[in-house]
Amino acid sequence: MKQHVMKFLKEEDGLTTVEYAIAGGLVGAAVIAAFTLLGTTVGNVITRIITALTPAATP
Q: Under 8 Å CB-to-CB from 54, ≥6 apart: which residues?
């Protein structure tokens, strides 16, 4: 039994899986943050364009 426990503790395959999971989570969070900021910026630009064109549209 002791041999199985020692083998499990020395095994590094599980650690690699955890590292990939953490890296994937960080990449996912960065993508979500980038799209959120980009969406806000695009929304602000569209609002400015609408505001600039609205007085010109009324006769």
A: none
Q: Please, what is the Cα angle at 14 between 16 and 26, to 5 degrees?
A: 45
Q: What are 4-54's pLDDT values in tens digits? A: 777 777 776 666 788 888 999 999 999 999 999 898 889 999 999 998 888
Task: Provide the CA 39 distance to its chain's centre, in angstroms.
Answer: 14
pTM score: 0.53
Collapsing DSSP to helix, strand or coil, 11 comes out as coil
The label of the residue with tokens 């980009």 reads 38
Question: Whole-angstrom Cα distance, residue 57 to residue 42?
Answer: 22
Three-class SS state of 50? helix
